[in-house]
Design brief:
427 residues, mainly alpha, two-stranded antiparallel ribbon, two-stranded parallel sheet, 3% strand
Length: 427
């Protein structure tokens, strides 16, 4: 049982390094009292078993870690009976019985040929990536040795070295791959690179600022290559400095089965539906499919030079100017579900921001917003705090209108500025 306790404690601390000792002990007690006898049993743990002990994000992280741990244990050569030698050979699933224990096969043996392809555990490159510490600036290495934080300039240089090394494996690493690398750095040298509060406590997941620096560096390196084609057009006109990196489909080609004529026919079909059923047609499955198929010419018109007038675009694509249509367009453009991304960001970072300003209000405006905490939703509360901290007026971002107002009512009753605002209907 002591071995199970140590293994369980190790998994919890690797996944949630900032968890308190009390919560850690409560988790272990809860799992053991539920009948946990080995790490193999972790695959049976469900969200309901520990939902009262952890916040939602930490709960999902831990369940994912439990799942990965049981997958590794199931396929680990070291758990096989002792007569089987520990050799670096693929694992082969026997043909005779799906439930039988995996056996080890030497490369080129006849059993592999009889039973079909072998299955070999293989880690991704971010998991095996070696941080090039020896090529880091001297200031960074000195800070690491002393448990201190490097200067901002030395840290930026470190990020440059790190980005160059990672791009040897992949020119444009995904965010999840960068997260794996950043997590490894924070685990090795938390005092030097983790996001810390004044009291030394880890802020959030600890790697957010390093991840942002690394991703920005990689994207900046890629801007001069893969996105160059987006900054010019066939008529010789040059685009301005508008950033296009971050868009996965800035200007996609026509779908293979479509032509300009067929896509235009689908646009006309959208126009026909709009004139017949109005804005509520955006809920139809047919409209969703037609908007996805015509996305290529939507982007072509949006990216045209000179830039089209908004009224012209609205006339061509009325469903693009609905909330659902705009969100769907953004997801096709960036592969990001913006509503879900905002919810997760607020869930993960919103309470930390609110806690930070509650402990250290930076000015009188922040204190005024804090006094209204009980009356505000978390999302709106955090936005108000940030605006107050940066001395921005509420009217600079948000306008209010009656809950029953239409677009025409708003244009008639409010003095709308030339620059964009969020318009909230209600109190």
């Amino acid at each position: 049982m002591n071995t199970v306790l140590e293994d369980l404690r190790g998994i919890i601390l690797r996944t949630l390094p900032t968890i308190s000792k009390d919560t850690q002990q409560a988790l272990m007690d809860k799992l053991l009292n539920s009948g946990l006898e080995s790490t193999q049993d972790l695959k049976y743990v469900t969200q309901e078993d520990i939902t009262d002990l952890l916040p939602a994000i930490q709960l999902r992280k831990l369940l994912e870690a439990f799942k990965k741990e049981t997958e590794v244990v199931t396929l680990d050569l070291e758990i096989l009976p002792s007569p089987i030698p520990a050799v670096s050979t693929p694992l082969v699933l026997p043909c005779s019985s799906p439930s039988s224990v995996p056996s080890v096969s030497n490369q080129g043996s006849s059993s592999s040929e009889d039973c079909g392809p072998s299955f070999q555990i293989k880690k991704t490159w971010p998991e095996t990536f070696q941080i090039p510490w020896t090529t880091m600036p001297v200031d960074v290495r000195s800070a690491m040795a002393d448990g201190k934080r490097p200067s901002p300039a030395a840290r930026r240089q470190m990020v440059r070295v790190l980005a160059d090394e990672m791009r040897k494996y992949e020119l444009n690493p995904m965010r999840s791959q960068c997260v794996t690398v950043c997590q490894n750095i924070i685990r090795q040298y938390p005092q030097s690179f983790a996001d810390l509060r004044d009291n030394g406590q880890v802020l959030g997941n600890g790697y957010t600022s390093l991840l942002i620096q690394l991703k920005n560096r990689i994207e900046n390196l890629n801007r001069t290559t893969s996105f160059r084609q987006h900054r010019s057009s066939g008529d010789g006109l040059k685009r301005g400095p508008t950033d296009t990196y971050g868009c996965t489909r800035f200007q996609p080609d026509l779908p293979p089965e479509e032509t300009d004529e067929t896509v235009e026919q689908k646009r006309q079909r959208l126009d026909e539906i709009y004139h017949r059923v109005g804005v509520n047609g955006v809920e139809r499955v047919e409209v969703k499919q037609l908007m996805e198929t015509t996305f290529c010419i939507q982007r072509r018109q949006i990216n045209a030079l000179p830039a089209p007038a908004i009224t012209d675009l609205r006339g061509q694509w009325p469903y693009l100017f609905t909330q659902k249509g705009l969100y769907a367009h953004f997801e096709l453009l960036t592969d990001i579900n913006i509503l879900r991304a905002l919810e997760l960001s607020m869930e993960e970072c919103g309470r930390i921001i609110a806690e930070f300003f509650s402990n250290k209000p930076s000015n009188a405006d922040v204190r005024a917003v804090l006094s209204l905490r009980s009356d505000l939703e978390l999302f709106f509360f955090v936005i108000q705090l940030l605006m107050a901290h940066f001395s921005e007026t509420q009217e600079g971002l948000i306008l209010f209108a009656n809950a029953s107002s239409t677009a025409a009512d708003v244009e008639r009753t409010l003095a709308l500025p030339a620059t964009p605002r969020l318009l909230l209907l209600g109190d």
